[in-house]
Every structure is written in C-alpha cells, then in structure tokens.
Amino acid sequence: MPPLSRPVRPHRDDVLIAAAGLLGGVLLWALGLRGAPPVPGLPPWASLVAAAVAAGAELLRRTAPLTGLALATAALALDTCAGTLLATVVMFTDLVYAAVLHGGPHAARRIPPGTALVTVLGTLIALAVARDPQALFVGVFLGLITLTPAWTGLIVRHHRDAAQAARLRAEQIALLAETDRAQAVAGERARMARELHDVVAGHLSAIALHTTAAQTLDDPAATREALGVIRENSVRGLAEMRRLIGLLRASGGSEADGEPPAVPTLDGLPALLTRARATGAGDGLSFSLHDGRQEYEDGARPGGSSRPGHGTRTGDGAARPGGTPATLPAPVELAAYRIVQESVTNALKHAAPGEVTVRLDRAPGGPLLLVVTSPYGTRRGPGGARVPGSGAGLTGMRERAALLGGACDAGPADGPDGPVWRVRATLPAAEEAPPT
Q1: Does residue 304 register a pLDDT over 60?
Q2: In terms of residue numbers, what domain contains 134?
Q3: Weakest-pLDDT range from 31-45, 158-172, 380-394
C-alpha cells in the first residue's frame, strides 16, 4: 500500500482572505445587510452557511482552485436563495479569478469563454422571464462577478507567464555567457601554453644540448663555442619571454609599448634552420628547406630539375635562386612557422644523425602542405632522447592545425634511406591580395 501523501497546507494569504470573508459575512448578517429577501422556507442562518462554505473554498484558491470554485458556486447558489450576502459574492468573484490564475492551462483556456457564455445566457433568460429592459441589470451583475474576474485573471496569468519566460531566457543567456567566457578563458590558456612552449622550448633544448656537450668535452675551444651558443639561446629565449609578457600586460593584448608585436612568418624559416644547424652540428644533423611555393623566372629547379614552381633553400638561409612566395594569411603563416619550429626542436632532441628536411608545397588556390622528416631514433638507438620531452609540442601542433580547419599528424614512416619520423600538416589557405 503506497504511503498517503501529506495534505498541502493553504497559503498564509489565503487563510487571511478566508478569515476576512467569513468575518465580513457574519458582520453583514448581524447588521441585516442582505440583498433580496430569502426564499420562503429557508432559515435565516442559511446565508451564514453559504458564507462559511465560500470562506472554506478560499483556503483552496492556490492549492486546488477548481475545487474551490465548485464549492463557491454552490455557496453562491445557496446565498442567492437565502438573501445574498455581499461577502459571499465577493469571495466567489475572487475564486473565479484564482481559478484562472492558479489553475492549469486547460482551466485558463476554458473558464473565461465559459463566463462569457454564462453572462449572455443569464441575460437572455432574465429578459425572457421578466420581459422588462431592467432585466439587463442581471447580465451586468453576472458580468461583474464572473466575466470580469475571469478575464482579469487571464491577463494577469499571461503577464506572469511572460515574465517567467523572460527570467528563464535571462538565466539561459547568463549560462551561455558564462559557458562562452569559460571556453574563451580555456582557449586563451591553451593559446598561451602553445606560444610559450613553441618560443621557449627550442632555445631551452639548444641550451640543454650544448650544456651536455660542454660538460663532456675537454677541448677548451669546443667548450667556448658551446657556451657561446648557450648564451645566444639564453638571450633569445629571454627576449621572447619579455615579448610575451609585454603582450599579456598590454591593454587589449595586441600591442606592447605602443608597437605591434613581431609575428613569425615563413620568411623566417631559413634563419630558424641556420640556428638549428649550428645546434645540431655536433650530433651529425643537417637541415634543408624545400619551398615549393616559389615561382622562378627561368622555370628551372636547382640541381638540374626542370620542374617549374619549386625551389630549395639550405640551412644557411640562402635561397637558390630567388623567387616570390605566394602570400598567405597571417594565421596560416604563424601556424606553419610554429609547426616547423616544433618539428625542428623535436629533431634536435630525438633524431639520429642525418638530414632533417622541411618541405613546403601548395597548388594554386589549394591548402599549404608542410612535411618535416628526420632520421628516426637517436645515437643511443630508437626510443632514446638527448633531451626528455613531455609530448606537449605534438598536441600544440595538432591544435594549431585544427584551429585553422586543417590537420596535422606525426609518426614513424618509411623513407628512401630508412625509417624516418614524419610530421605532415595540411593548412587551408586562401591567398591574400598583395598590398598596393
């Protein structure tokens, strides 16, 4: 047997309304202030019973409004026959209003038209029975006690529902705004983490490599050279850190000290590879850049190839022969540069002796294809590393490509001279109009 539910207690305001209505009815009855004379045969206290029933119905005006309206209708009928106390009529009117306001949607739709129908029918019946124009006052009376409170309750209910819907919309907007803010903060934190990793990891890796070399070599000249590289990378890393701190502290985050920040582009790849060659020379690493975006006047590729539209740069930063690369959007240039930078840093940490190749290619109007290959494994065999890594760089490369709608994957692959570690990124890039 299911447990019995506890009865719902009436609202405090409903108790006060019921008490005031009952007290008013008793006072009017005691003063003899009643309407039409009672129907013969009814005791004079019958109107008090009707007032008490209507007062009891007021206790249900919020918890069970339709039940309260039914009781009030019966009480009004008895009161009409017993002499009509004004307090009972007022309580009935309030219960019509409460039934529309606090009842269900079905009641709110049906009661107002029902009161209009009752008013019209009551007026017609009164005119037919009395055959006197004064019978129209019956319709006016019915309209005042049924039609007016019903439609007033409907209007108030509509305003209440509209206000509640507005509050819900405001809460949803606030929730969406908070979600957007949290996503923006998370995105900015991820962007800062990528930028800090990319601009500092390369310099710190070079410092770690040359520190190890300085500790193991007995040659004073080699030690001095290693210390020079360490100092150079320390200065560069410090400058990059100061630049990032300036960007973070500047208002708007776009300018520092009144000057626009320097954004790396693909034109800086030769200098990047020059520094990488100096760092990796002691480990047998060389670096080359093959830029397929170049267009040459003679249509010839260095090395005897006649394929037009291709060029090659070596790690010393010289282009052979000179050409004009296609203009790419700044976000694509930055992402491509950072992906190459991280790939070169990983090669300095993990690659076996050999050539690290950076290839850029792009068909007219197509995406930018970036491939970096390096000999797989280290001098201590596959799986070893000169400098330990955390894997954050690979995550950052994938995130940079995904933010532009591209893709980036990294892993071992078969090369012409043996296994290689290959980083391949595809970055959608629409050409920008050259500046005029």
Answers
A1: no
A2: 12-174
A3: 380-394
The pLDDT of 334-344, averaged and rounded, is 89
For residues 38 and 34, give the distance between their C-alpha atoms in angstroms, rounded to a whole number: 9
**Rounded (5°) CA angle 129-135-139:** 110
Residue 184, Cα to own-chain centre: how many angstroms?
Answer: 8
CA-CA distances (angstroms) from residue 213 to 32, 343, 379?
A: 115, 22, 14
Residue 320 lies in a domain: yes
pLDDT in tens, 192-207: 777 776 666 666 767 7
Q: Give the pTM.
A: 0.50
- Domain final residue, candidates 157, 174, 191: 174
Domain boundary at 174, 193, 226, which?
A: 174
Q: Residue 423 pairs with which residues in a beta bridge?
A: 372, 410
User: Does residue 129 carry a pLDDT above 90?
Assistant: no
Nearest alpha carbon to residue 96 among 153, 52, 159: 153
Rounded Cα distance between 245 and 203, Å, is 17
